[in-house]
Structures are given as structure tokens and as C-alpha cells.
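task queued by scheduler; priority normal; single chain, no ligands, no partner chains; default sampling; output format set to C-alpha cells
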Amino acid sequence: MMETFGKITLHNGDCMEVLKSLPDNAFDLAICDPPYGIGASEMTMGSGKNKRFEKGKKWDKTPPPPEYFQELQRVSNNQIIWGGNYFNLPLTKSWIVWDKGIYWETSFADCEMAWTSFNRVARIAPIRYNGFLGEDKVRIHPTQKPVKLCEDRAIAEMRGYLSRRYDCNRIFSATGADRNQLILMMAIDIAVYHIFCIHNPQKMSQIRKDRYSRAMEWLKQVADEDISIDGAPLLPEEELLAKATFLIRSNRKRVNHY
């Protein structure tokens, strides 16, 4: 089954069948979190009232076969594979290490590691995430990764342009259908660009550069008040007045033709 939401296409089916139906290099980047094969589906996840995921489904009984990773590499130019230390993957120096900030507090690992196909230095992302006590309060899966691993850099860059006129706290705390779709699209383009810049800018496609440039040009026009964002919440009037600036400039030079 396939369903489309704007520019997002969601496939619900066997991943091997879907991968085989895709052309070579269909995606710039594949980010995946396959089963590690460590029996996480039978572990107790969360604490207190948060112990709500049923055991017995055995979705983490075995890791994917080698053919899965071969197909994944065929359909994408680059890959980020969570739990890469559990799989037989090529050597890489560009690991992403998620530091959960729990430090011997539980029987679970203090960090998780993502294998990447990039040729850059390793990076650490320190984000507190002790099961359901972490920063993401709403989760739909026990091994779900925190959203902050992907979005922080893009949001920080966008705030620098939007904060003069718009209420960034309201904009970036919105969820689901309440999010401004234009801002969301620009944020995704900026976030994907930074993933490549950190890890392997040499393999970045031209369309990723073009979309980032477009997003940055749009942000500059918003900051210069040349354009406005329909539906985005403005700052309160008193804050807008406090941030107001006065510009003195001359008219554009006239060109006379005789």
C-alpha cells in the first residue's frame, strides 16, 4: 500500500519488495533503523505507566539479511544506518554516536551508534534520552530515535532570520497539521544539506545545493521584510516595536535614454 502526503510518499509493505521496485540511486540519503537482532521486542521498555508496548511480536528476533543492505546501498547515494555496530558493514570512520546522557543508570547502553557511508570525522550528539524519560514525550515505538538528532541545526539557522518578526517558539513547537508547511519544507531542505556538509559534502547532489540556496534566499527575503510568511505567528506588537529599525537610503540610480 502506498499513500502520498504532499511531497512525502509512505510505503506500507515488505521493505525488501519495496526496495527491489525502486530504481538505482533513487534517493540522496537513506536513514534507517533496522532490527538489531538483540531481542529488544521482548525487553521491558519504559517505566511505570509508560510500560505500554506489548511483548511477543518478535520484531527484533533477527537482523536483516545481507541482501537488505545491498538493496539499500543500490537505491541511495548515501546511508545512515542505526545499530551499524551489530551488522557486517564496510569499515567507516564517520560514525554518529548518540550519547543518551544516562551513564550507568539503566541496563541499556549509554549510547547508540549509526554507521554512515560518508568520509568524514566521527560526531557525538549528546541528547538526554532515558527511555520514556527523555526529551521526546510522545513516542510510537520503543526504539524510536529522538527527533532532535535531525532538526536542531536547521531550526537554529532559521531562527536567526525569522526571530526579528515572527514568534519562533510557537512556530517550532507546532506539531502535525499545525506546522506551517512552507517553513517545514525549508527546514527539511536545510537539515538535509547540513547532514551532507558534516559528513560528506563531496557527494552532495546539485539539487540539494540548489534547494539549500533557495531556502537561504527565502529566509533573507523574509528577514529583509521583502516577503511575508502567510499564516506564521508574528511577535507581539510591543516586541516588534522594540526590534524596529530605521533605514535611510537613496533612490535607485536612474538611467536616462536619449
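post-processing summary
- The chain has two domains: 1-143, 147-258.
- The two ends are 67 Å apart (CA to CA).
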